[in-house]
Amino acid sequence: MNELFDLSRFHRQTMVPMNPQLATLFGDSLALIDPWFRLGYSSASLHRYFSINTAERQTLAVLAGETPAACLTVRPDWLRGPLLELLAVLPQFQGKSLGKEIILWLAEETKRQGQANLWTISSEFNASARAFYRLQGFEEVGELPGLISPNETEVLLRLRLGCRNSPILDTF
Ligand SMILES: CC(C)(COP(=O)(O)OP(=O)(O)OC[C@H]1O[C@@H](n2cnc3c(N)ncnc32)[C@H](O)[C@@H]1OP(=O)(O)O)[C@@H](O)C(=O)NCCC(=O)NCCS
To answer: Cα 82 from chain centroid?
Structure first.
């Protein structure tokens, strides 16, 4: 497990595979905040989601010291590059560059594996996440109406790692 992504290369904080205790904590926390609250996810469904950590969908947590700060799930081999299926920085850790550092780490890992695309999805209503991803160089490439909830649209985003169109890529 986790043979594709080198967690030790995430230097800002500690990145670890999700465990049952962390799955409960992140499930409870995310059920209370958007986009998961608005999309109708229960803490129980998020617990189940975070409890599955396979080679096809890796579920990771970031700890600030010993305090859970962020989590992510990644499908490593999605479409000529990985899909960042979920990214959440807990509210008390937002705005401190942690999300940016996670994207930078994942982009570097993707590039290290010889892949040139990093994908993610965001709810259309999640203007702050869309602004965040745009700043990291992601382009919105398609709309997916009703993907998660019948009345909501998800947006597919692509970061092309061969293109220098974002400050995050200047580090390559
Ligand atoms: C969206 C999210 C991942 C961003 O992570 P973060 O750690 O708070 O963001 P950072 O501190 O790394 O910000 C990086 C850059 O994005 C910008 N940014 C962050 N949130 C922003 C917002 N709401 N609006 C506009 N810009 C924003 C920052 O100003 C910063 O810009 P800079 O590099 O020029 O200084 C985080 O706020 C989050 O988890 N939100 C709730 C869940 C969510 O929406 N997840 C994503 C979709 S599944």
So the answer is: 11
| Chain segment 47-92, per-residue pLDDT in tens | 999 999 888 999 999 999 999 999 999 999 999 999 999 999 999 9
Find the Cα–Cα–Cα–Cα dihedral 13, 15, 21, 23, rounded to 10°. 110
> Hey, which of 71, 75, 89, 132 would you mutate to test ligand 1's pocket, going by the most ligand atoms within 8 Å of its Cβ?
132
Cβ–Cβ under 8 Å, residues 121 and 144? yes
Site residues for ligand 1, CB cut-off 6 Å: 35, 86-89, 94-100, 122, 126, 128-129, 131-132, 135
The ranges assigned to domains in the chain are 7-171
Fold exhibited by the domain 7-171: Aminopeptidase (3.40.630)
